[in-house]
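Anyone else keep sequences and structure tokens together like this?

Example one:
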Amino acid sequence: MVRLPPWPLVAPIPVAHPIQAILLDGVGTLFRVRDSVGAIYRAVAVRSRPAITAAELDAAFHAEMAAAGPMAFPGLTPDHLREMEIQWWYDRVYRTFARLDLPLDFATYRTEIYEPFRGAAWELYPESRATLLALRDRGLTVAVVSNFDSRLPDVLTALGIGGLIDHPIYASRHGVAKPNPRLFEIALAACGVTADHAIHVGDDLTGDVAGARAAGIQPILLSRDHHRLPSVDLAVIDRLDQLLPRLDRG
């Protein structure tokens, strides 16, 4: 009698992981402002009002951004796009200063506020780089999907993670901003995957969670303040690296 070995004669075919691409928000997910926006603005503002605080400038900035429309400019040449981005941000920062009766000239804004946000003003969250390396080791395609501008690739490079991001997708270039599902669809096309093979991770319920769901993508909310929402159908993590065991579980 022929005894068969206790293992299959034909090796099983490995099953591809259902998730093939990870889409990540930028600010608040991968990286953050070093110190605060208000602290950076204060370095300029104290020349006019030494007693101004970073907290006052932060509050004025957030009020201005809440009232602003999206930074999305369809159909522009790269040079015209950069000009529009610079002007859009000057309007936001000028109005932030104006809310506190502070002056701001364009040259100072351009050199001391706009350009630092191309690199030096940002820092990675502690676990971001290791998480990106782990995603690469798993063979996943990674895109950043952000309501940012054409400085995004420079920011990623300055932070040392440019080579770990396959596709930086930002609103100003494509003329559409989150939560519009179109920006997510552009990211899916760049990654070469369908919505059911992607996960989006971000820190905003509207832009990231609602936007991803509208595009048919599974969202994961990154809530760094450890706040757990009572939604039974929303995955929530406290740190970006908590994404990894979820992927390993399939």
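And example two:
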Amino acid sequence: MTIALPGLPRFAVQPPDVSYRALRVWQRNRDVYLRMWKSEIVWPIVDPLLTLLALGIGLGGLVELEGNQDYVDFIAPGLLAIWPMWSAAAETGWGSYFRMENQRTFQAIVATPVSVDDVITGEIMWAATRALISASYILVLITAFGTVESGLAVLSIPLAVLPGLMFGSISLCYTSAARSISSLNYFFAAYITPQFWLAGVFFPLDRLPEWAQKAAWWIPATHVVEVYRGLASGDLEWGHLGDIAWMVVVTGLFYVVAIFAMRRRLIK
């Protein structure tokens, strides 16, 4: 399809060219992970554990919540929602950049019948898989702490694929424009880290000023936290369907942007 805008040259926009070969890219990343899983398993477990101990139990003794809810019970579903975000974003951030620029893996793959769009789709699929793995670790961890009140919490594992796709796509959009691996630090410092603190993981959002609550609505992680908190407590509402729909829309939008941005990066 060719698009023409007044005063600008005509340019072609091709829809995503995705085939079953995207699964081969996913399998390649899976195989690498299976060789390195012993070194990969520490961070996803130790960081949430330290957070639960330091904030949930340590600081939690000084925090009073409505309904006499223990603070550790409040933050546990938030950690279940937020840590998969880190896993997915890191995979298509530092991981994808390293494969693209240092290892030249992307260039080697597209020299085969695999398309650029297959590579990008496979990378995002793998980011979603990392989110699912992370959610599985943390669900076991918070269950061991006795913070899970409902069996519906098990649904958080398959559901982790959606925020994994979402944050994987968002992170890959930035990676497509990154000129050095160190520049990815700006993305994580200015975008990912604030979501860790401002998405309602550590405090109820209704305690914030009204303008801040409206701003938090635009933070993708906020909607993930809301759904996971409902699953962990068994208190699901119709509004959670709106949260899921919001994530689907954002995922689709950034997936398309990632496809076109990485085409420009890889096709000279």
